[in-house]
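Propose amino acids for all 444 sites.
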């Protein structure tokens, strides 16, 4: 096609060239201004005590030099370069940002079936996403600079939206890895018990058969899942052997298909396993993390160690919901304490996860989990590592976070007291920095 001697293609090229040229010369034209070179901001943090996640003891009077979103150096007694802003935390204890690897930002309390059903039946997904963004901010305010969110409880892929909004700086919150929709076979997870004439929402994605499992994995990853989670069991009960048993949801072939397809696509699998039967089924399938794990037996603990699987105990939620749920729940909490103590002695990789969302984000500080770990036998330093270094390994981000050292993201929190003497100090975070940006500073 010709236009007065100039080809249409050439004319289009001239127009595009003009637009690009004007856009790079004139600020604001077509929303594109020539980018200016902006010097990366440098800041120094003076830490009175630094628990860096690597050393066995705190480093005193450390200087943490930060450039942009990364730590440049950590020097005991160092001097800040001239002209660099210094944040004075000389009277505080500085730690790596906390990590919670089991949360539900789209859920706000789940003690009873009525609590759960009301959220899915009466709240729209957009409204739940708004609350999810609020919950992400609560987590950050409590010192959790990274979370793994394990399913949306009926809110489809809204966790991907919350993650994206945080990553784009639209709302404050932790770094996130998300699992989108957990999986169970048809009819094995709420909402249940309603008339067959009503189409009610479900808290999960129903998945049946080997091919259905593979398709569900592919679909979830297509829509932004970093992890795949499935419900390995339900109906937790004690039998004559004193072991906590459960009904396994998927056939071994289905569970193996979920895990194999997820691994083939370069992702990892978390399995909700509370009873011993569900845990055993998850380990047979090859999952990467066992969530909850109340029914761990000596044999299962040995298997977890052998396979290098991470255990995420979520003690806080169990202790919180047990009184309201009744039944076996109180006994299950006591059983998990025994399992925790055995697992600690045998070297299980225990990563901090709280199941926040199972309790109302506004009612309980998720850092309470650290306190339970110490109560159950960890040293305060071990507990801190379970919520910093170990989760960084689990998430595949150990080269980026988990410790305060050169080359890592500048994710730093501070408390007034000494958490090695009183672990509850971690529930009173006074300072939060994520990626070199200060989100909270109440240190006096």
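Proposal:
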């Amino acid at each position: 096609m010709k236009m007065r001697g100039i080809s249409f293609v050439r004319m289009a090229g001239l127009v595009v060239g003009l637009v690009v040229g004007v856009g790079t010369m004139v600020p604001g034209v077509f929303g594109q201004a020539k980018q200016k070179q902006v010097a990366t901001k440098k800041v120094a943090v003076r830490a009175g005590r630094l628990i860096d996640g690597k050393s066995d003891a705190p480093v005193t009077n450390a200087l943490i030099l930060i450039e942009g979103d990364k730590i440049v150096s950590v020097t005991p007694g160092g001097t800040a370069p001239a002209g660099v802003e210094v944040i004075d935390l000389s009277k505080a204890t500085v730690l790596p940002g906390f990590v919670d690897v089991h949360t539900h930002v789209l859920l706000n309390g789940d003690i009873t079936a009525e609590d759960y059903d009301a959220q899915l039946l009466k709240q729209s997904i957009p409204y739940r996403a708004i609350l999810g963004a609020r919950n992400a901010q609560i987590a950050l305010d409590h010192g959790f600079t990274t979370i793994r969110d394990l399913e949306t409880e009926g809110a489809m892929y809204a966790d991907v939206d919350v993650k994206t909004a945080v990553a784009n700086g639209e709302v404050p919150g932790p770094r996130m890895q998300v699992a989108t929709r957990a999986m169970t076979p048809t009819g094995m997870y709420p909402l249940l018990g309603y008339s067959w004439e009503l189409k009610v929402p479900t808290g999960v994605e129903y998945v049946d058969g080997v091919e259905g499992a593979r398709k569900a994995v592919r679909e979830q990853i297509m829509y932004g899942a970093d992890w795949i989670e499935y419900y390995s069991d339900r109906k937790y009960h004690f039998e004559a052997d004193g072991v906590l048993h459960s009904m396994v949801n998927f056939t071994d072939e289905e569970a193996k298909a979920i895990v194999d397809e997820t691994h083939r696509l370069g992702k990892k699998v978390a399995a909700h396993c509370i009873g011993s039967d569900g845990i055993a089924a998850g380990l047979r399938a090859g999952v990467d993390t066992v969530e909850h794990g109340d029914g761990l037996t000596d044999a299962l603990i040995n298997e977890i160690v052998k396979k290098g699987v991470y255990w995420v105990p979520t003690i806080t939620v169990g202790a919180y919901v047990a009184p309201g749920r009744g039944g076996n729940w109180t006994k299950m909490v006591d059983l998990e304490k025994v399992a925790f103590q055995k697992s600690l002695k045998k070297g299980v990789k225990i990563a901090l996860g709280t199941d926040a969302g199972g309790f109302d984000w506004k009612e309980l500080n998720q850092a309470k989990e650290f306190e339970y770990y110490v109560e159950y036998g960890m040293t305060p330093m071990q507990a801190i590592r379970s919520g910093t270094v170990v989760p960084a390994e689990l998430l595949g981000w150990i080269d980026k976070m988990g410790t305060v050292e050169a080359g890592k993201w500048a994710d730093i929190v501070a408390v007034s007291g000494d958490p090695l003497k009183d672990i509850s100090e971690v529930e009173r975070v006074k300072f939060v920095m994520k990626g070199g940006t200060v989100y909270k500073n109440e240190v006096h």
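Residues 1-36 have pLDDT under 50 and may be disordered. Residues 8-25 form the longest helix (18 residues).
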